[in-house]
Amino acid sequence: MKLAEVLEALSLAADAPEMLDKEVEGGYCSDLLSDVMAKAAAGSIWVTNQVHPNVVAVASLIDAAAVIVAGGMQPEQETIKKAKELGIPLFSTDLSAFDVVGKLYQLGLRGILRNG
User: pLDDT tens-digit profile of 28-70?
Assistant: First the structure.
């Protein structure tokens, strides 16, 4: 599934339309950065409530397809800047993380684990 399809289904705005062709393999939801680094698979959309720049560093490390910041949280300016520098699609939504994950599941995406 393409990132553009996910954004349309969740009514998310895109700052960088050129990244919407990315393929999404599945998803992962966690606020614990070490958990994401250990378990999230490449190509996943990562759903979190974290807003600091380390989110982008971890997303880059795991080769995430995108990061969705849920719960009405807004990424810090430094986080947004770092995401643009590293080419990590970063989105925010007022939906709770629970609702985001439910919508992703309805789209056919499933949780995938690294080496799992």
Answer: 999 999 999 999 999 999 999 999 999 999 999 999 999 999 9
CA–CA separation, 39 vs 99, rounded Å? 21
Instruction: Copy the structure tokens of residue 6.
Output: 């996910």
Domains and CATH numbers, the chain: 3-106 (3.40.1390.20)
Closest CA to 69 of 31, 16, 102: 31
Q: At what angle do helices 3-10 and 97-106 cross, to 10 degrees?
A: 120
Residue type, 116: G
Q: What is the pTM assigned to this prediction?
A: 0.94
